Amino acid sequence: MLSALPVGLDSFQVADPTRNPYHLKVGELLVRNIAPGKYGVRIVPPTGSGYQQTTTIEGTKGIDAWVRAGEPILTSNLVEFGPTFAHTFFGFVRQFNRLGATPPGQTAGSIRGVVSNLRMARAPDPNFYDGQPAPNCWVGLNGLTSGLGLYAAPCAEGDNNSAFSIPNVPPGDYQLVVWDKYLDLIIGFFSVSVTNGQAVDLGQVSVPFWFHAQQHYVFRDSNDNGIWEPALGETGIPDQIINFRFRDGSIFQTSTTDTTGYLPFDEVFPFFSWLIAEVDYSRFKATGMTVAIDDGGEVSPTSPFGTTPDIGAGIARIPEDRHKTGTIADFTLSENAILEGYFRPGFSRAGLIDWTAAEAFARTIIDTYDVRCPGPQARIRLLSGGNMQKLILGRVLEPRPGIILANQPVRGLDVGAIAYVHARLIAARDAGAAVLLISEDLDEIQSLSDVIHVISAGRISPGFRRGSKSAAELGLWMAGQGFAEGADAA
User: Fold this and answer.
1) Phi/psi at 387 (nearest 5 deg)?
2) Which among 247, 352, 417, 453 is most buried, taking Cβ atoms within 10 Å?
3) Torsion angle, alpha carbons of 156, 157, 162, 168, to 10
4) How many other CB atoms are there within 10 angstroms of residue 254's CB atom?
5) E strand or H helix at 122, and its extent?
6) Closest Cα to residue 309, out of 341, 334, 336?
7) Dihedrals φ, ψ of 33, to 5°?
């Protein structure tokens, strides 16, 4: 049985011990006779009251409460020591303005800005950058020294609904507070000073999100070039499944596109793991993918994903044939080391290659990957297959790409070189890279891969976790026996 005391007591009723036997303060709530465990607590304001929640733990309106057996009433400990406090606490605010009149002899100013997402770049460049505008935001002003709330209001409505403007601000020092309607933003605090009549333009006010967000569009690619071209009549595909899954194949989130082919994932928490976003291929084949990271720009349309790996977009490759497509035999090790990265700022400037930097990069690969050779100026055709593959491996791994396409990476190598290449690929995976291994060697596939897909006659199998299928069972899929009759090509 659960019972609760109401929070709607006024100041006189609170002092009445017959109505308030537990000496609750105004705004406090007591839920009695509850079993030990973890509970989600949520406070819902009355409809139409205009109240907006400001407090959250991990970006949700519900706040977790841990109840232990025999706890004192109204108090809790998260640990075995320290002060006690309420199991949960909530903050709400509605639009108000208590800035007051500007003192005589002074002129009111204003504060404006645009709330945006503060995003962190991935290693090895863990810096923060301004991202996309943050919709549905709220802003507030507190007195910097007094801490008193002076102003709260939602940001502007419409397409530019991350902009805010606070007029008639008396000169002084303030604390600007930023949050949002759905509590996706981690509440931000900023110090702002307004001098006499000053119009303070803060520009972008960047605040980190609790969650990662993605937007997806799936469309009918009439010319199979992998690029959405609405002018050609290419329309979105409704009810198309998009999955978020972990690398072991387990599904984290899944949903379907709307009537326009659009599907947003606004609250994605990866649990400190890399996630894979994939479109379902059961009805249609995939022709390509265009990626935009915040407002950083698209992957080059001349090199859509799925046709030629875009090396500049953090995608690296280990080619199937190191002699024909991986190296140029009469080039030096230095030249081959930058063969797929000569355009990077570290190796070229104004169209001219920095050969000193190229040689230094080759020496780094030679030393780090134990490439046995006379030096960076030696012709690569003089190297053994294993040492040639080590140079390619270093060329791929040193820039720390996010995606590695490894096609037959150990073909023709001796046992020692095979073990070395496998160890390096596993280390790259453990460091966060997504590795797509393409191989005809079942032993290699089964020993390295977290998830295995079989491709046969243009069709791709479901994902199998490592160890869930024997070599014989995978062989049946390779022969096409696992696919449903008449299955479409993927």
Assistant:
1) -70, -35
2) 417
3) 0
4) 13
5) none
6) 341
7) 55, 50
What number is the average pLDDT over the span 236-253?
A: 86
Query: Which of 100, 35, 98 shows the shortest CA–CA distance to 68?
Result: 35
355-372 per-position pLDDT tens digit: 999 999 999 999 998 899
Q: Could you tell me the pLDDT band of residue 114, with boundaries at 50, 70 and 90? A: very high
What is the mean predicted confidence (pLDDT) over 366-392? 91
* CA 392 to chain centroid: 30
Whether residue 45 has a cis bond before it, omega within 30° of 0: no
* Distance (Å, whole) CA 461 – CA 455: 6
Rounded to whole angstroms, how far apart are CA atoms 313 and 76? 50
Query: Could you tell me the pLDDT band of residue 23, with boundaries at 50, 70 and 90?
Result: confident
- Among residues 446, 393, 443, the alpha carbon closest in space to that of 421 is found at 393
CB 110 within 8 A of CB 165: yes
Question: CA 65, CA 85: separation in Å to the nearest integer?
Answer: 12
Q: Which residues contact 307 (CB under 8 A, 6 or more apart)?
A: 226, 288
Residue 133 near residue 185, CB atoms below 8 Å: no
Query: What are the backbone angles phi and psi of residue 250, rounded to the nearest 5°?
Result: -70, 140
Supply angle C-alpha 292, 309, 432, rounded to 5: 70
CA dist 401 and 122 (Å) reads 10
**pLDDT for position 377:** 93
Check the CA dihedral 327-333-338-342 and report its sign: negative
Which of 388, 398, 386, 359 minimizes the C-alpha distance to 375? 359
- With 0-12 / 13-18 / 19 or more C-beta atoms within 10 angstroms meaning exposed / middle / buried, residue 248 is exposed
The one-letter amino acid code at 70 reads: G
Residue indicated by tokens 């949903």:
255
Exposure string of 140-168, with b = 16+ CB inside 10 Å and e = fewer, is bbbeeeeeeebbbbebeeeeebbbbebee
pLDDT digits (tens, 9 = 90+) for 122-175: 555 667 777 778 888 999 999 999 989 999 999 987 555 789 999 999 999 999
CA angle 102, 161, 207 (to 5 degrees): 80
Residue pair 113/164 in contact (Cβ under 8 Å)? The answer is yes
At residue 83, the pLDDT reads: 62
pLDDT value for 92:
93
